[in-house]
Amino acid sequence: MVLDSMKEIFEAMETHDLPFWEVVLRADMEDRQVTRQQSMAKMLRTWQAMEDAANNYSGARRSVSGLVGGDGRKMRQYSFRHNAMSGGYVSEVIAEALSMAESNACMCRIVAAPTGGACGVLPAVLLPLCKHEDLTQHQILEALYVASGIGAVIAYKACIAGAAGGCQAEIGTASAMAAGALVAIRGGDKEQIGHAVAMALKNLMGLVCDPVAGLVEVPCVKRNVIGAVNAVSCADMALAGVESRIPVDEVIDAMGEVGRRMPVEFRETALGGLAATPTGQAVKERLRQA
Amino acid sequence: MNLFDILGPVMVGPSSSHTAGAARIGLMARTLLGGEPVKAAIHLHGSFAETGTGHGTDKALVGGLLGMKPDDLRIPYAFTEADKAGMAFTIDKVDLRDAHPNTAVIEVTTQEGKTLRIQASSLGGGRIEVNKLDGVDVSFSGAFNTLVVRNQDAHGVVASVTNILSQVHINVANMSVNRSKRGGEMLMVIETDHHLKPSLVEFLKELPGILSVTYYDKEEEDDGSGFDEGDL
Question: Which residue in B55, B124, B226 is closest to A163 by CB distance?
């Protein structure tokens, strides 16, 4: 089967009496012609690469432009020393999102999820959860299949690249993937996964891709934070029984439509938004002369 | 696009298109050159030219030419590695007509004087497409095992290659045959489902009418051995 809509996945779950993650796993086995063991071994390596990325980044590096680096460490120290307003888990989510996105900007090794620019969102919600809750690796892999299945549907129906659909397509998709993964970990049903994905995408709809000097640095690093925190809130809302009034597949279509009609200045061209501000232009000029 | 294009690739940042894709383009150029490059002229087009330095596109391309994969931690230091390896390189901007915004043209040379001119684009998510080889239009991605054969434009040469492949049970997924002019040189690009042994590649080189053969092995998949779901 092809992962071409959330409805398709839900129907396969009912027909074959399978959990969400298992439907995605089987789709991968069929698509890449691999065994269950091969697919899961690759997913495990992907997870280990995320853990390694978090463990190996000290926060000491700076990005090429010098604009990015060290903020994740600041946030982590703050959340350890002070009583962060966002509380234990969420303040760690913020710190991890900053750190991972910043390590990406500093040319460290990361896992694109779904892109390099949005690589911080999914690990930011999962890694701190592992510290707070007793999760098995199997549960983590299940969550990663759920996340990538959601990403595959969005890539098929809409888009996942900033150049194609703005930041809503990158951070928005990453946020939807993370929200669905969290609901799955907490044992939510398929409807709840769908609502979490729908709400996560809706909340970031219309967000433009406006990187200063065209680099994956400003505002990308901090947008990983909004993607991650949004995922946590949407997962909690869905688990609480809050529903999206617009069905998830329609939300995905709407995001794609907004992306297609988004002016080119707001699709990674660095011609609009923050990139076009006097300060944004000054950074570009400074880098050009360097 | 497969599931691990969504969750993945595992790569050195910052950009799947400008960094990971660039490394793959460099590695593809090295592979199809069929030898260690000692000289490389890299020309960047569009967004590669505009934001390449900030994205490490230049380092990733050079790293790829040195044999580095997108997740190689040496990519940020590729220029130093090139010095160590004795590869001289230049990087400049070029304005191509009708090319994807993330496109590079690379001219590479081996110690023995073998040369290759390749034009390739990075399509996003680390996926690439090769557009031109030595001036001939082509279209392949490296998602399959890929055989690039230069041969004389004479009858029976194409069949002789595909005949050998069929005898060793190698299935052709896609194939293109292009030539610049009748009776001159031709370029065959054959994408296969199965892996080709080095001995087979060597054998193909000896066939009549064949001028050169290079072979790109698609990125190795884990066979999953040692993995037990029960251990998780």
Answer: B124
| A118 contact B CB<8A | no
Q: Edge-to-edge strand order for the sheet containing B127-133?
A: B88-93, B37-46, B102-110, B115-124, B127-133, B136-140
The parts of chain B modelled with pLDDT lower than 50 are none
In chain B, residues under CATH classification 3.30.70.260 are 145-231
Of B8, B50, B76, the CB nearest to A111: B8
Q: How confident is the model at residue A1 (pLDDT cuts 50, 70, 90)?
A: low
pTM to 2 decimals?
0.93
Among A125, A242, A240, A105, residue whose Cα is nearest residue A177? A125
The closest CB to that of A109, out of B15, B73, B224, belongs to B73
Listed by number, the residues of chain A in 197-256 with a beta carbon closer than 8 Å to a beta carbon of chain B are 213-217
Is the preceding omega at residue A114 within 30 degrees of 0, hence cis? yes
CATH 3.30.1330.90 maps onto chain B at: 7-139
Asked if B3 and A31 come within 8 Å (Cβ–Cβ), the reply is yes
Q: Which residues of B touch A136 (CB under 8 A)?
A: 232
Average of per-residue pLDDT across A142-146:
98
Residue window 40-69, chain A: list those with CB within 8 Å of chain B. Answer: 40-46, 49, 63-65
Within 13 A of A64's CA, how many CA atoms are on the CB side?
Answer: 29
Sorted by sequence, the CB contacts under 8 Å of residue A74 that are 6+ apart come out as none
Spell out the domain ranges in chain A: 6-289
Query: Under CATH, to which class is A6-289 assigned?
Result: mainly alpha
pLDDT of residue A74: 95
Sort out which chain B residues have CB atoms less than 8 A from A161's CB and list them. Answer: 17, 124-125
Specify the CATH superfamily of domain B145-231.
Answer: ACT domain (3.30.70.260)
What's the residue count for chain A?
A: 290
CATH code of the region B7-139: 3.30.1330.90
